[in-house]
Amino acid sequence: MPLNREQVTMMDDFDRKILEEFRELERQMGRMLRTSSLSRMIPMGSSGGWQPAVDIYETAAEIIVLMDTAGIDVGSIAITAEKNRITVEGRRSLPKHGNVCCIHQLEIELGYFKRSISFPVAVKFDQPTFKCQNGILEIRLPKERQSCSLP
Does the pLDDT value for residue 122 go beyond 50? Predict the structure, then answer.
């Protein structure tokens, strides 16, 4: 239950600091849960790679896949199609920074990646369109039958 203005004024500095810390923790936990997906948390077996984040949208006519490809050379990306899914794989590497004596934060996933994406409807793999702009790979696949249903 949120605190009212009167309760907040009665707090001392220590209580306010604790309250601020809990609000920040709540914000960070929400961010972590929003950006997590089960498929990204499951190890990829022997490949040892990582998986870029993906959003999938459906319109009446097509499936649209958006993949986070920031820092990935488009020429290193391979896309294969089979049955009702596509697989996108490639490699991300960052430039070398000379003689680094200490790393203070390391969050960017590097190296080989592979991401398989299954579709809820049949798509036409012979008519895809691809575009990579501002670190986002966009894949558009026409659907076999035009329809859009809510789950």
Answer: yes
